[in-house]
Specification:
heterodimer; A: mainly alpha; ABC transporter involved in vitamin B12 uptake, BtuC; 3 domains; two-stranded antiparallel sheet; 20 helices; 6 strands; about 70% helix; about 5% strand; elongated; B: mainly alpha; two-stranded antiparallel ribbon; 15 helices; BCAA_transport_permease (chain A); ABC_transp_permease (chain A); ABC_UrtB_bac (chain A)
């Protein structure tokens, strides 16, 4: 009963004070506004803080104008005026009404960094109560970074009416940080430390390390313990992140290399133009996207669904064309094939350069591939995730094609014993052409994926060709599983070396490792077992 | 024994080629320096380093032909040896700049001052002496080739696998030399050279001398290569190329033979690079690019691999074509080069020189056969006549 009465009285008081604020509004803050034009920077900072504390609805707009340098005041001090946006006349700051007789010695109110900081803090304070969720979140994050004990009351007020979980969590963290700075009770501080530690990210680590210095003795063990546990979890997340980045790089390598594993591994053809097939795939994506933009803009988000088959077919046909016109004359002469396909790669590169120009082409990410989401301390971007899914999908599809389909059976037969296969009625030239087309088509699909994360330029393929060869040679020729393991291993190894050695040195180390590895196992990780000592 | 090897019988055409190269070594500098401008026979000053560049490329192609044409090792990393030789020479030239650089530091090259380095890295010591630098021109590429070949040939990495890892080698070096921390000038490489052995590198006389030196080096390399190829070792080398296992089973240490020729070839490439740098005036990591090494292969292939003169002709021809093409239609050079790769492998697998040689050989054979047939017919006719003649008296009786 007593409690209800108390609540009622408090509510009544609040109501009355609110009403009073409303009535007071404009005229009450005028002296505060005018103080902005008087005195040096320290006084102005005080004036900004006083304005912010007044809680008037106009304050945010006034401060915004101040930070944009639109407020003018007489040099000797006095009323503050707002420069009208259009004709250079001056209007009243609060009412917006034109002012006829302005003093002659008006000057813009100058800002320095201290004042700017004060305005920013004051604005973020004000937006803590804003109805816009994003604004509240941004404001509370600002507050978390720059925790000022003066804002504690405001923060408490904002917390009381906050409903959104994420904003509330940020606010609570900010409140905890502020509490650590004030002389709150040890229990409150303990709770604050727990709140911060629960965030478990790098910021929390910085805050806690900072708080160590002026924390009371009895809290130090707790802080230390929390710091240690955050560090452990961060280390684990670091490893997870490296693995994730490594998987992502590995899946790109897998996509680029798996077509090569077909042409090189299965057919024994060194296709130096493989990188250019990837490049052609990326340009096909570009063309499909542009066409779709022109013909059916509402379908733009699904352009990749058209680009994947288009790239597969186009590069596959180009591959078959190359096989029929050049490569089939060179079977059994692998070194010559290498040179001829290198020549083809030069021609393809220059053709694309002539048609599309040497500069990068813009390929847009569809909406479902942009953005990111968090898993614990790990930010996962959608495009990387979809590329991993896509490359594994391609891998499985290829595996099924080779093991389960009639074409796959014929292909394996031709690989293992060309003459026997021919005697059994398999048209080996057709199988050769289709196999090469398949490898090229997969390269084209890799190009679709790469267009989402890399620059689409005529040199796109060059950046991947050596890495792809490394993957195939490392994983073992003629074995798709070897390619999978090789690509993922190299990707992850690369990402783990990067923090210690830097990106370039890491790559050099990987190359040296592979060169040495080939000495030990000249046929790669998963070598085909056989009795032939040489081809 | 070595002199005997060097001056023992060479094929006549090799001797002709050597004579021609030496003639060029004498004539081009003379025509540049002595014949006045405007005269038809005057060689303009800008052409001398360009011709010198062609000859450096010819030396590089010859080096590659030794391993590819005669031993079947398709190295896609010979540009690396070339560039290493070039860097060794470039380091000497950098040290010669002394305090005439932009920052006027007597000891440190400009780029090190720029990077705030306070002392010379240890591997730059000694490069102020020409003799030391010249030794390094041979040793650094030679040592890399020896170590690389030691591992590669011992574990019997052959064919395309070897090609791919040589490409990986030059790619790794490319990435490494791009790094500023390596201490080789990073992206910009070494340039702004002033003197070589006290002579201004820009001066006409120095350029003419450098050209002559390049031509003499090429001639010597040709004699050396010819001696190697015509020796017993050279014959076995061809055996390794054509039937490696069989040669091994005959008792030859194939890996040692490969290692020797690979190292010699790398040293020759290093010399080519060292002669290239003062004439071009710059060496940068771009020389390590895998594409450059593959281009060397096409020079050799166009000229004719497995013939010593072919690569020289091929290198000069292709680069001459490149100079003309890139000036006239820069857009189409890559088309032309690509088409050259395809056409050479498809239609001219023996290269220009190889095809001509084969043609001549078949014609010679044909002639020989014709002569033999004619001789046989004559002989048959003669014997028939004599038999007739021996019959005649009987008939008369």
């Amino acid at each position: 009963m007593y409690r209800a009465l108390q609540t009622f009285l408090v509510a009544l008081c609040l109501l009355v004070s609110c009403l009073a604020t409303g009535l007071r509004a404009q005229e009450d803050i005028r002296p505060l506004v005018d103080a902005l034009g008087t005195g040096g920077f320290p006084q102005k900072i005080e004036a900004v803080k006083a304005l912010a504390a007044s809680g008037d609805a106009k304050v945010a707009e006034i401060l915004q104008n101040l930070s944009e340098g639109k407020l003018y005041a007489p040099k000797t001090g006095g009323s503050v005026y707002l420069a009208a946006p259009t004709d250079g006349a001056y209007v009243d700051v609060l009412t917006g009404a034109p002012v006829a007789d302005v003093p002659g010695n008006l000057a813009r109110i100058k800002l320095n960094n201290g004042l700017r900081g004060a305005i920013g803090a004051a604005l973020s304070q004000l937006t803590l109560l804003s109805p816009d969720r994003a604004a509240r979140l941004a404001a509370s994050q600002d507050l978390l970074k720059d925790a000022d004990p003066d804002n504690l009351d405001l923060l408490n007020a904002a917390l009381a009416q906050e409903k959104d979980a994420e904003v509330k969590a940020t606010m609570e963290a900010a409140r905890a940080v502020i509490l650590l700075k004030t002389d709150a009770s040890a229990e409150d501080k303990k709770a604050a430390i727990d709140t911060i530690a629960a965030r478990g990210n790098r910021d929390a680590l910085t805050i806690l390390t900072g708080a160590m210095e002026n924390a009371p003795e009895e809290l130090k063990p707790a802080i230390e313990q929390n710091i240690a546990s955050i560090e452990t979890s961060l280390a684990i997340w670091d490893v997870t992140q490296n693995v994730w980045y490594g998987l992502s790089l590995g899946s790109v390598l897998l996509l680029a290399a798996i077509g090569l594993a077909i042409t090189f591994g299965v057919m024994g053809i060194i296709n130096m133009a493989h990188g250019e097939m990837v490049m052609l795939g990326a340009y096909t994506t570009y063309v499909v996207q542009q066409t779709l933009h022109a013909v059916a803009p509402q379908m733009s988000d699904y352009s990749l669904a058209f680009a994947v088959p288009a790239a597969f077919l186009f590069t596959g046909l180009v591959g078959i064309g190359i096989e029929r016109s050049v490569i089939r004359w060179l079977y059994g002469r692998p070194l010559e094939t290498l040179l001829a396909t290198w020549g083809i790669s030069l021609i393809l590169q220059q053709s694309i350069r002539t048609i599309f120009g040497p500069t990068n082409r813009q390929v847009d990410n569809p909406s479902w591939m942009s953005g990111a989401f968090d898993v614990g301390g790990l930010a996962i971007t959608y495009n990387r995730m979809w590329i991993i899914v896509f490359s594994l999908g391609v891998f499985v599809a290829l595996l099924l094609l080779l093991k389960r389909s009639k074409f796959g059976l014929q292909m394996r037969a031709v690989t293992q014993n060309r003459r026997m296969a021919s005697s059994m009625g398999i048209r080996t030239p057709w199988v050769d052409a289709l196999t090469f087309g398949l490898g090229s088509g997969i390269a084209g699909m890799a190009g679709v994926a790469l267009s989402q994360i890399d620059n689409v330029s005529p040199n796109l393929g060059q950046n991947y060709i050596i890495d792809s060869f490394m993957v195939v040679v490392f994983g073992g020729v003629g074995n798709l599983w070897g390619t999978l393991v090789g690509a993922l291993t190299l990707g992850i190894a690369n990402k783990f070396l990067e923090p210690y050695a830097g990106a370039v040195l890491g790559k050099i180390l990987i190359l040296i490792f592979i060169i040495l590895f080939i000495q030990r196992r000249p046929r790669g990780l998963f070598a085909l077992k056989g009795r032939a000592i040489e081809q | 024994m070595i002199t005997q090897m060097l001056f023992s019988r060479h094929e006549k055409k090799i001797l002709w080629a050597v004579a021609l190269i030496l003639l060029a070594a004498a004539l081009v500098p003379l025509a540049n320096l002595l014949i006045p401008e405007g005269n038809f026979f005057h060689v303009p000053g800008h052409l001398v380093p360009l011709l010198g560049k062609y000859l450096c490329y010819a030396l590089l192609a010859l080096a590659l032909d030794l391993v590819w044409g005669y031993c079947g090792i398709l190295s896609l990393g010979h540009g690396a040896f070339f560039a290493l030789g070039g860097y060794a020479m470039g380091m000497y030239l950098m040290r010669q700049i002394g305090d005439r650089g932009v920052y006027a530091n007597p000891l440190l090259p400009d780029f090190m001052v720029f990077l705030n380095w306070s002392e010379l890295p240890w591997y730059w010591y000694g490069f102020n002496h020409f003799a030391f630098a010249a030794l390094m021109v041979l040793l650094v590429p030679g040592l890399l080739a020896f170590v690389f070949g030691w591992f590669a040939f011992r574990s019997r990495v052959t064919g395309v696998y070897l090609s791919i890892i040589t490409q990986a080698m030059t790619y790794a070096l490319l990435l490494a030399f791009f790094r500023n921390e390596m201490g080789f000038g990073g992206n910009n490489g070494l340039t702004d050279f002033k003197d070589i052995l006290g002579f201004n590198v820009q001066a006409g006389g120095t350029r003419a001398t450098l050209f002559a030196a390049t031509a003499v080096a090429l001639a010597l390399a040709l004699i050396l290569s010819s001696a190697i190829v015509r020796s017993k070792y050279g014959k076995v080398l061809v055996g390794v190329r054509d039937a490696e296992s069989r040669t091994r089973f005959l008792g030859y240490r194939v890996e040692n033979m490969k290692l020797f020729i690979f190292t010699v070839s790398a040293m020759m490439a290093g010399i080519a690079g060292a002669l290239y740098v003062p004439q071009v005036g710059i060496i940068n990591p771009g020389e390590f690019a895998p594409a450059n090494s593959i281009e060397v292969v096409i020079w050799t292939a166009v000229g004719g691999r497995g013939t010593l003169i072919g690569p020289i002709i091929g290198a000069v021809l292709v680069n001459f074509g490149k100079s003309i093409f890139t000036a006239a239609f820069p857009e189409f050079w890559l088309f032309a080069l690509g088409a050259l790769f395809v056409a050479t492998t498809l239609f001219l697998p023996r290269g220009v020189v190889g095809t001509v040689q084969q043609h001549l050989a078949t014609r010679k054979e044909q002639k020989k056969a014709d002569a033999a047939e004619r001789a046989y017919r004559d002989k048959a006719a003669a014997s028939a006549e004599s038999r007739l003649a021996s019959l005649e008296p009987q008939a008369a009786e």
